[in-house]
Amino acid sequence: MRFTARIATAIVAGFAAVLAAAAPAQASTVTSGAQDGASLTAGRPETVVLDARTGQVLSVTPTAPTASTDSISNDQNCDGGDACYFSGKIPYAHQAFWGTTGAYYGSWPYRSGGYSGVYKAQFCWENPTLVCKSIFPPLTTFTFTGGTLVTGTAVLFYA
């Protein structure tokens, strides 16, 4: 009986050693060779396209997250220092955001631009793919070229 237990223990230990040796080392940052150093440690959901043969990162695209933080609030009254996503079509309302560092996600169709208010803010939208570009300094107003209307998807505040 003891002999069988020793064999079983040796087999389990052997499998554990094989699995440990086969496990890849975890990298702290993965960088794309094709997307100007796009990083996979950006802190928001991303879709990554890999080369199946080499495993090289070909592209990194932000993915629309679904959960907002409790640190940003939203309503339809753009007042004072609020960040604001402007409506470009009646009867859709402007969307105001205020709070502290964090993110607020949603779907606000027909956005014509926005205002960062007193915040260092980033706005995300779909037209037709997800775009999360510039982080604007406080008091910055932006519009889209040619009167383009987009669907707003997120407002993020940074420290």
Overview of this structure, please?
This protein is mainly β and 159 residues long. It folds into two domains: 25-63, no CATH class; 72-158. The protein contains one helix and ten strands. It has one helix at 2-22, and strands at 46-50, 57-62, 72-75, 83-87, 95-99, 102-115, 120-126, 130-136, 141-143, 150-158. The strands form two sheets. Strands 3, 4, 5, 6, 7, 8, 9 and 10 form an eight-stranded antiparallel beta sheet that branches. A two-stranded antiparallel sheet has the order 1-2. A hairpin with a 7-residue loop joins strand 4 and strand 5. It is globular and about 55 Å long. The model is unreliable at 1-38 (pLDDT under 50).
* N-C termini distance: 65 Å
Give average pLDDT, whole number.
76
Ranges with pLDDT <50 over ≥5 residues? 1-38
Number of helices: 1
Over the alpha carbons, how many angstroms does the gyration radius reach?
24 Å
The helix/strand order is HEEEEEEEEEE
Which structural class should the secondary elements be placed in? mainly beta
The total tally of domains equals 2
Taken from the alpha-carbon principal axes, the silhouette is globular
Q: How much of the polypeptide forms β-strand, as a percent range?
A: 35-45%
The total count of strands amounts to 10
Major β-sheet profile: 8 strands, antiparallel
Estimated helix fraction: 10-25%
